[in-house]
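[audit] Reproducing an earlier prediction to check determinism. Same input, same settings, fresh worker. If the tokens differ from the archived copy the diff job will pick it up downstream; this log only records the rerun itself.
[audit] input (650 residues):
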Amino acid sequence: MKRTVLLSAVMSTVLVAFGQQTKTQNHHLSKSVEMSKSQFEAIETPSQPLKPGGAATKSNTAHGKYRSEVYDFVKVGNTFYDLQTNASIGRRTILHDDGTITVGWTYSGSESTTWPDRGSGVNYYDGSNWGSSPSVRTENLRTGWPSIGMLRDGSIYTIAHDAADGGLLMTRNTGKGTAFTSDAKKVFEHPQGNMIWNRTANLGDTMFAVCNFSAQEDDEDVFVDGVENPTMYSRSLDGGKTWDALSLLPGYDSNRYASGGGDTYAIDARDSIVVIAIGGSYKDLSYWKSTDYGDSWTKSVADSFMFGAFEFGSELIDQANRAESNDGAIDVLIDNDGTIHLVSGRLAYWDDDTTNNTASVSSFFHLYHWSENEPEWKICGNLINMDESTDANGNPTYDITSETTNSMGTDGNPANGLAYAARYGGTSISTHPSLSVDEDNNIYVTWDAPIELTFNDYLANYRDVLISYSTDNGANWALSQNATQVRSRECVFACLTKRTDDFVHFIFQMDEHPGTNLQNSGSGNLHPNVENTIYYAAIPVQDLMDRKLGINDLSVSPIEKESKVFVVSQNQPNPFSEETNVVIYLRAGSEMSYTVTDAMGKIIEKVDLGYKNPGNHEISIKGDNLSSGVYFYTLTTKDSEITKKMQVLK
């Protein structure tokens, strides 16, 4: 029998209603959910910003759609398989101590919707330029959802799951930028069922992994100590050669968890500290902290759901007192002082209808932060312009179409009579967060969210990657800025490097269509299986803090930004003979050139590079006409120039 429970709201915020959902015994993220039309409520002001004001870029229309000035990024890869996660992002970017970068993602070069060549795609930045987009996966078997890391000997590993036969597969190379062994080694599996969706981190050769039993429709459910398809943990002390038996973390039990969930967990490791966070829709968001390389664990609950071991649709809750929870898309970070930080999207749940088999869910617009030093959930990311009295189109609501928050119905077509579905699994409006920290202990977060007045032909909003930061350990957060500013494409699944320098480094996926082919295509092929691009972006921290990036809204009085040029790193190779490369960030679009001078200041060469859009670019400098010696190259725009030294050796 259901019991009536009155709940007190934990925090006040804006919600968009997903509407009626069919009740199921097990509410897995991999299962489709029906949603009704979105409803909007009054907008509230987020936490006090650290920086006031903001720069906006002018937009114009093309084919009846709003479009901003194009931002450019460095292409590092591609994939036809476009679902990079069900919820949490994971560890897929590494900023190495020498300024080089390794990135990974789920790759497929096949247009077939079975993606037979699916596996881990990896690329490497050597300090000046990226390698060619990979055309093959690192494994010799079909895999997905990689985590990457660097072991004590400098080799890079990937760990990804084998969804067909179960278990996790590990590949590694001999060092950064080198080829991976083609023989993927199975690191562990469970005798009761498939273990997939890993999240892995390491401290030298000590590796830590969490994963979940597959909860696909055709898999048999597995129970471990009363928890259905639970999240499991393992550790390796020898760089992945051997692993401890999979186990439940202490306190992860059937008193609080009825079931696990794919990708609803995150991990970080630093010094001797390891932290694993596990959440999920209508579940506690808890974290397990070890200060001794995983020998012992202490569990803490950052966000307690009102019901332990909750099953979707099992409680009677009226709409006025709905129950709130994280949305399963979470990230965890250990900062320079050893403090734990958590971020997540949020949902609210209610079920006050005793006459039919339905329940309802609402989505929060904002992203939320919690830390050991600030143990109260607060807004760390707001949608663009939600801090203003009116937003992009001049009304007091943030307008997201029903097509944006709709998902496929049980018949495989858009639910609720709509023509399109673009919702990402069971996540909230603001979702897929990623955290990073710099040497000054400033905290950064990226996530993706729909942007007003940016629609596809079926009126679903496109998403951009947004970014915010805190300079006081999470006590206050700056107003959000738009990190991608593309508008006419879907920019999602951003992944920051956990540790950063003078630039915020991340990768993201760009798609022609809102949503994913895997979840949102339906029988009408609404989301065709097209090639998606994986891009790298490097944004100067100072520009971010000075709010030079801006919000890219539809303001009629945009603030002009000078086309200042930033060098992401020293040219490489250096010394060089034939060609050297440098990656730059350009604040605003401009004509650009470079000039080469000798040590005495004599101009040797001047090259016109033409017009460059704002964003990141790879600039190549030729050495054909240069003899051995020291030279200077100057990159010039209409507003700025920067000079660096280089050496030619022939």
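[audit] rerun output stored. Observation attached for the diff report: The chain has two domains: 4-545, 565-648.
[audit] end
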